[in-house]
Design a protein that fits this description.
single chain; alpha+beta; 22% strand
């Protein structure tokens, strides 16, 4: 006889709760290790595995956030038409800036760099050199 649907759902609920708990533990440990690596000015750590090395690298990056409404107010109608669909087409904006049709200074006034959350990237390496 197979397990009842209720029993399987209860077990799945427990599994989901365990995953959430493990994710919280992972995030806390990752934040702690990131801070330790920053404090010791280490960007990459190696540890021995069977025939290679495990690696953990600090990854920090950012992305650019454009205040599209403010940017659009400053551009001419022709410039807006060149870059806009229902939202600003980032690739077309880059193209228009690259070709000189839109001044990069105008775009810069409406753009801010938004840091992404740092994380550790795990992998393997054949040797311990960076």
């Amino acid at each position: 006889m197979t397990e009842s649907l209720a029993t399987r759902l209860a077990r799945l609920g427990e599994m989901k709760a365990n995953i959430a708990r493990l994710q919280d533990e992972f995030k806390a440990e990752e934040a702690s290790l990131l801070q330790e690596m920053r404090d010791s000015d280490r960007k990459r750590i190696f540890w021995p595995l069977d025939n290679e090395f495990g690696t953990a690298s600090v990854v920090e990056s950012s992305t650019i956030k454009i205040d599209e409404a403010a940017l659009l107010r400053e551009l001419s109608e022709e410039q807006v038409t060149a870059i806009q669909k229902t939202v600003v087409d980032q690739k077309m904006l880059e193209h228009e800036v690259a070709t000189g049709n839109i001044d990069i200074e105008v775009v810069s006034r409406h753009s801010t760099e938004v840091p992404r959350k740092p994380y550790l990237r795990f992998g393997t390496a054949k040797e311990t050199t960076d």
